[in-house]
């Protein structure tokens, strides 16, 4: 068995891994046990009682975090020339079409979100094998395939995120940075959790939210007591 480092021992001594904590308390603990030198992300892991292989139990949604993500989101808009000015005015980092399609085919993915218009989806669809695995594929359900590209860019820049349940039934998403105040982290986390609750599929039977953990990029997870949400 791997030897536990002194630092790790100190971290584990600060809380009981078998206990569930109120959300406010869990956030405090995560901030205490985060030892990274960089401003780590605060992540939520929510295990759901759904079978994601069944289309009627898929949990996917978008949420605008009240205090933003704390990250600089790099946005690429793939659109026809008539939409370029709107996208640029809204703050898109990259705007174009054929040249960017080629760049992506050549392996460039130095972006966080891709927004496009429905009329260019055939060209964007060809990038599925590259964008899909990286979670960058535009989708009408998440508002990233739209004629209102300016509005979509502004929303993403303001802290709109999308999430979906993975094949293990877990929603994993970043909700803040460790440098945020406790209150801001809690409010962002609650916004995500309430959205997940609203998205409960009618086909899902039994316990819907099985467990909630909050952690930072390099910290162990702290279990959150569901009643505190």
- Rg to the nearest angstrom? 19 Å
Shape: globular
Low-confidence stretches: none
Intertermini distance: 36 Å
List SSEs in N-to-C order.
HHEEEHEHEHHHEEHEE
Strand content: 15-25%
Average residue pLDDT? 93
* Classification by helices and strands: alpha/beta
Number of helices: 8
* Sequence of strands across the biggest β-sheet: 7-1-8-9
| Biggest sheet record | 4 strands, antiparallel
Number of strands: 9
Describe what is shown at a glance:
This protein is 31% helix and 21% strand. The protein has 229 residues and is α/β, with parallel strands linked by helices. A four-stranded antiparallel sheet has the order 7-1-8-9, covered by helices on one side. A three-stranded parallel sheet has the order 4-3-5, with helices on both faces.
Question: Would you give an account of this structure?
Answer:
The structure is a single chain. This protein has helices spanning 6-12, 23-33, 81-89, 98-105, 121-125, 128-131, 149-158, 182-198; strands spanning 41-48, 60-64, 75-78, 94-96, 113-116, 160-164, 170-177, 209-216, 222-223. The protein is an alpha/beta fold and 229 residues long. It has a 4-stranded antiparallel β-sheet, with helices on one face. Strands 4-3-5 form a 3-stranded parallel β-sheet, sandwiched between helices. A two-stranded antiparallel ribbon has the order 2-6. The longest helix has 17 residues, at 182-198. It is globular.
Question: What is the fold's blueprint, element by element?
Answer:
Blueprint: H1 6-12, H2 23-33, E1 41-48, E2 60-64, E3 75-78, H3 81-89, E4 94-96, H4 98-105, E5 113-116, H5 121-125, H6 128-131, H7 149-158, E6 160-164, E7 170-177, H8 182-198, E8 209-216, E9 222-223
Parallel strand pairs: 3-4, 3-5
Antiparallel strand pairs: 1-7, 1-8, 2-6, 8-9
């Amino acid at each position: 068995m791997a030897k536990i480092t002194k630092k790790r021992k100190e971290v584990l001594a600060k809380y009981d891994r078998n206990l569930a904590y109120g959300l406010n308390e869990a956030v405090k603990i995560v901030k205490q046990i985060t030892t990274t030198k960089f401003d780590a992300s605060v992540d939520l892991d929510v295990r759901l009682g759904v079978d994601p292989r069944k289309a009627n139990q898929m949990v996917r949604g978008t949420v605008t975090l009240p205090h933003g993500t704390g990250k600089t989101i790099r946005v690429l808009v793939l659109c026809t020339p008539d939409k370029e000015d709107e996208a640029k005015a809204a703050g898109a980092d990259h705007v174009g079409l054929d040249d960017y399609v080629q760049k992506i085919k050549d392996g460039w993915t130095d972006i966080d979100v891709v927004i496009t218009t429905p009329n260019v989806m055939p060209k964007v669809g060809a990038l599925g094998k590259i964008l899909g695995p990286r979670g960058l594929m535009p989708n009408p359900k998440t508002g990233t395939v739209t004629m209102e590209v300016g509005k979509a860019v502004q929303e993403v820049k303001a802290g709109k995120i999308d999430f979906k349940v993975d094949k293990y039934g877990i929603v994993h998403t970043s909700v803040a940075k460790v440098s945020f105040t406790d209150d801001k982290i809690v409010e962002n986390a609650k916004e995500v959790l309430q959205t997940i609750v609203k998205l409960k599929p009618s086909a899902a039977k039994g316990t819907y939210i099985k467990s909630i953990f909050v952690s930072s990029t390099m910290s162990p997870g702290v279990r959150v007591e569901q009643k505190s949400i």
